[in-house]
Amino acid sequence: MSIRRDPVPPSPGASEPRARDGRPGHEPARPLLPSPVRELREPAFERYGVRLLLKRDDLIHPDIPGNKWRKLAPVLDTADGRTVVTFGGAWSNHLRATAAAGRLLGFPTVGVVRGEELAGRPLNASLARCRADGMRLAFVSRARYRRKDDPAVRDELVAEAAGAGQAVRVVPEGGSDAAAVRACAVLGGELAALREDAPVAGVACGTGGTLAGLAAGLAPEQRAVGVAVLKGGFLGAEVAAHQRAAFGGQRGRWSVEDGFHHGGYARSSPELERFATAFEQRHGLPVERAYVAKLLHGLAALAADGRFRRGTAVAAVVTGPPFPRA
Ligand SMILES: *Cc1c(COP(=O)(O)O)cnc(C)c1O
């Protein structure tokens, strides 16, 4: 049993010069892996006899946090100086992580950004960070962006954004290709070390790639619960498709909860906001709103519904910090 109940260690790089300060040419801070686990005394769970463990993936790396580190690791190993081209919305954590990785490891990055109209406006904080990290941004209409998974459309977008004839490594939106999903099985393996305490692991789902990998790495007696942050009820099928692509078939026990999206991606509700604010105040821990708040709120609701055995713990994966950091 390897739960650390002592204070969470400072994030990697905190005591050394931050790479951002010394750009370019600084060594990236070494990732904090396996990520630490911390138990919280959280009344929203304790009331129902359930304990809450936080798997602090948000501490893995200061600039490439959470599941973005896990998913990008195979890309970083194989970019070979090629231009990495990827896709995302105006506040995409994945675009920021990719841009930071390019700066730290010395490969060019191009971001294809959803929303033509953004091209004529000042950049928001997230896109400004991407550009400061050297990412070239290409803004495309929502209609074209929607068709980016059609290979012909994708090739066109990549050629336009990166320049024709460039050697490119294309990474899908959210970073969830088969190699990334397999890399997330390592997260499941880390959670398998908690099997005696925590029969259930919870994670928020955007593309579902992290859940697909995590579930594959758990111990056989464990199961994974995904909380969908998007509306539409399609994430279960996506997770199954990710597992087929990465492993050739279904792996591990998992399910997706579709009732906790609070209106859809980046939407919220007064109830969610109250829950997240109270949680932050109780624990002094800033809670990322698009994913982590919905996960914690969803798991608390499931605990209230008697869906976790009394006396056991749920291990919730904190997949990333808020941006900008509090
Ligand atoms: C990207 C992201 C997710 C979603 O991960 P998927 O693998 O796409 O499901 C969850 N949490 C945070 C904080 C993220 O940045």
TrEMBL record:
Question: Which keywords does this Swiss-Prot/TrEMBL entry list?
Answer: Pyridoxal phosphate
Required cofactors, per record? pyridoxal 5'-phosphate
Answer whether the UniProt record assigns the keyword rRNA processing to this protein: no
Q: Which InterPro entries match?
A: ACCD_DCysDesulf, TrpB-like_PALP, TrpB-like_PALP_sf
- Report the sequence similarity comment from the record: Belongs to the ACC deaminase/D-cysteine desulfhydrase family.
Q: What is this protein called?
A: Pyridoxal-phosphate dependent enzyme
**Presence of the UniProt keyword Amino-acid biosynthesis in the record:** no
Task: Please state every residue range assigned to the domain named Tryptophan synthase beta chain-like PALP.
Answer: 34-320
Which residue windows does the record flag with biased composition (Basic and acidic residues)? 17-29
User: Can you name the source organism?
Assistant: Streptomyces rutgersensis
Location of region: Disordered: 1-37
Q: Where is the signal peptide?
A: none
